C-alpha cells in the first residue's frame, strides 16, 4: 500500500467532501453515489472508500461540519454582538448560508432526508433554539424587549418561523426571495417580542 | 380475464389507497413497495398494478386527494365562516389533519420527498396562500385587522410560519405539542396582523 503524506491525504479528503457537498445539495442522498463523488472529486472509488466507510459517513461529516459553523448555535457572537442584535444577526447569517453556502445547503437537504440515511444525524434546531433563548434573556436584561417574555418559547417560535420561511421560499422561488422574506419575518418577529426600538435592527 | 363488479373494484382501490397511506406516512416513498402495499391491503401485486400503473401513481393520487380535502385551499369555509375567523379555523384544521389524518400525513411526507418521486406533484402552499389572502381581504373589509395590510404577503407569512411550526414540532416531539404550538403561533400572528380584538379568536 502506498503511504500518502498527511498533507496530501487531508487535501484529498477535503476535495472529496467539497465534491460530495455539491452533489448532495443538488441531487440529494439517494441521487448521489460513491462512484459519482469519486468522479466529481477526480479521485477514485478506492480513495473515497479509504477516507469514508460509507456514503452515510460522508453525510454525517457534512451535517456535523455545517452545525459547527459560525452562523449556528455554538459559535455565533460569543465575543462580538450580544442580545437582540445577535439574534437578528444569527437569523440573517443562517439564511445567507442556506442560500449561498453549498455545504450548509447539502446539510439542510440531508437533514430533510434523514429518513433515508442509516446513521443517527445530530438533532436539528435544539442548539440554535437554546442559543437564541440565551440571547433573548440578554435582550430582556438590557431592556430591549418586553419584560417577562418566555425566552425559550420565543426562541422556539423564531426558529420555527425561520424554517418555514426558508422552506416556502425554497419551494416557490428556489430561495431567490429569501433575503426579502427574512427581513419581512424579522419585522414581524420584532413586534411580537415587544421590541422597544425595532427600527434599530432593520 | 375476470370481470369485476364496479362496486367491488372501487372498494378494492380504496383499500389499496388506505393501506398505501399508512405505509407511506410511516416509511416514506423509498421504504414502501408495491409488494408491501399489496400485502397490507390484502389484495395482491397484480391487483395493485391493475389499479395503479406505478408507485408514483399512488403517491400522486394521495397528494391530490389530500389537497382537495376540507381543511385545504379550495373548500374551507366557502359557505360557513368568513374572514379572520376562517383563517384561524383553517390553520387549526390543517394542523389537526397534519397530526391525525393519515392520508394528509402521507401527503405531507410525499411532498417532502418530492425529489424521489418521478411524477410532477401539485405545487404546495400556493392554493392555501391564495385562499388565506382572500380571507384576509374579507377581514380587512370587515375592519377586523389593520387597514391597508398586504393580504397576500401576510398570507405567505402565515403559511410559512405554520409550516415551520409543524416541522419543528414534528422533529422534536413527533407533533405531540403541535396543538399548543399552533395556539402560540396564532396569538403572535394575530398581533402582527393588527387584529382589533385578538381574544375573539383564541
UniProtKB/TrEMBL annotation, chains A, B:
<dbReference type="InterPro" id="IPR009057">
    <property type="entry name" value="Homeodomain-like_sf"/>
</dbReference>
<keyword id="KW-0238">DNA-binding</keyword>
<dbReference type="GO" id="GO:0003700">
    <property type="term" value="F:DNA-binding transcription factor activity"/>
</dbReference>
<protein>
    <submittedName>
        <fullName>TetR/AcrR family transcriptional regulator</fullName>
    </submittedName>
</protein>
<dbReference type="InterPro" id="IPR001647">
    <property type="entry name" value="HTH_TetR"/>
</dbReference>
<keyword id="KW-0805">Transcription regulation</keyword>
<dbReference type="GO" id="GO:0000976">
    <property type="term" value="F:transcription cis-regulatory region binding"/>
</dbReference>
<dbReference type="InterPro" id="IPR050109">
    <property type="entry name" value="HTH-type_TetR-like_transc_reg"/>
</dbReference>
<dbReference type="InterPro" id="IPR036271">
    <property type="entry name" value="Tet_transcr_reg_TetR-rel_C_sf"/>
</dbReference>
<dbReference type="Pfam" id="PF00440">
    <property type="entry name" value="TetR_N"/>
</dbReference>
<feature type="DNA-binding region" description="H-T-H motif">
    <location>
        <begin position="33"/>
        <end position="52"/>
    </location>
</feature>
<feature type="domain" description="HTH tetR-type">
    <location>
        <begin position="10"/>
        <end position="70"/>
    </location>
</feature>
<keyword id="KW-0804">Transcription</keyword>
Amino acid at each position: 500500500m502506498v503511504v500518502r503524506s498527511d498533507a496530501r491525504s487531508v487535501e484529498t479528503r477535503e476535495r472529496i467532501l467539497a465534491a460530495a457537498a455539491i452533489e448532495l445539495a443538488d441531487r440529494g442522498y439517494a441521487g448521489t453515489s460513491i462512484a459519482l463523488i469519486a468522479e466529481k472529486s477526480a479521485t477514485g472509488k478506492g480513495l473515497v472508500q479509504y477516507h469514508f466507510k460509507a456514503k452515510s459517513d460522508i453525510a454525517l461529516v457534512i451535517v456535523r461540519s455545517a452545525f459547527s459553523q459560525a452562523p449556528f448555535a455554538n459559535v455565533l457572537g460569543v465575543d462580538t454582538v450580544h442580545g437582540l442584535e445577535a439574534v437578528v444577526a444569527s437569523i440573517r447569517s443562517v439564511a445567507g448560508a442556506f442560500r449561498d453556502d453549498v455545504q450548509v445547503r447539502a446539510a439542510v437537504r440531508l437533514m430533510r432526508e434523514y429518513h433515508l440515511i442509516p446513521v443517527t444525524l445530530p438533532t436539528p434546531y435544539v442548539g440554535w433554539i437554546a442559543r437564541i433563548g440565551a440571547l433573548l434573556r440578554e435582550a430582556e436584561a438590557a431592556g430591549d424587549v418586553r419584560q417577562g417574555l418566555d425566552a425559550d418559547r420565543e426562541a422556539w417560535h423564531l426558529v420555527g418561523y425561520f424554517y418555514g420561511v426558508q422552506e416556502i421560499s425554497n419551494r416557490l422561488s428556489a430561495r431567490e426571495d429569501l433575503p426579502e422574506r427574512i427581513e419581512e419575518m424579522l419585522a414581524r418577529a420584532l413586534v411580537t417580542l415587544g421590541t422597544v426600538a425595532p427600527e434599530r435592527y432593520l
